Amino acid sequence: KRTSANPDFAALIVLWFGDLGLKRGDKVAIAASGSFPALAVAVLAACQVMGLEPVMTLSLGASEFGATIPGFNVAQMILELNRRGMVDASPAAVSLGGEKDAGVSEFPGHETKEALNREAVATGLPILDPEAGEEGRMAIFFAGAAPKVFVNIGGGEVALGSTSASLRLPKGMILPGALGYASLGEGRGERRGLVLRFLDRGIPVVHLLDIKGLALKAGLPVDPVPLPEPGGSAIYMEGSKPKLPAFLGLASALAVLGAPIWKRKSGGRRPKAGGVS
Length: 277
Fold this sequence. Notes:
Elements: H1 8-19, E1 27-32, H2 37-50, E2 53-59, H3 74-83, E3 93-95, H4 113-123, H5 133-141, E4 149-153, H6 157-160, E5 172-174, H7 193-200, E6 205-208, H8 211-218, E7 237-238, E8 241-242, H9 248-254, H10 258-266
Helix pairs in contact: 1-2, 1-9, 2-9
């Protein structure tokens, strides 16, 4: 979780979006759990500096050391950044998260179904019915223009589905047809999940999970203490020449704007362990 708070993840996402040929005004569909709030902000920062149009749904459940502070979940973090003018996008809808997206958790603590429902109501955002599942999110994402890319953040069941194919998904950028996902059937009541559904439609995916592996592959440090200054990682350079334009410093800086807010809200305490992923 601390590795994901590196501001240069925002620049890595900009690199991937550039490789996919995204242009100003293109729609980006985003599904995020509460487990990696820094990555949710990083994706919004990348969209902002590139002039893209993010449509984000959030599940409030979070694994330990994610957005587990009662009263300050991942949706409220983004709404606060929006209120302060630091990001220009707000979530389209929230869900409870957890097993079957219904707020079911195997862990004791504050993240019961009832508590998560209160958290969802407090955001003031539309709440997705667990029965709507993948279809509910697809309806949101495909209202109007079709998305040019789908970004999944975390291991939410709605995004990954229940098919064993989700276990073989590579992390990072996935191109349609690269691994033959269109030929994978559901069968035996299995749900394909949003990642496979987008690939089926010929839409590329950015899959943000296994953060340590992604960091090592991109040349980002694992669990750096203190967090590095934006713009110093290897992803900015190609040989001795800059790979990314200077304005990406803004994208990187935006990715950590939530940190001082978290500190004030939590009094500097570590989040409570437990919750649903």
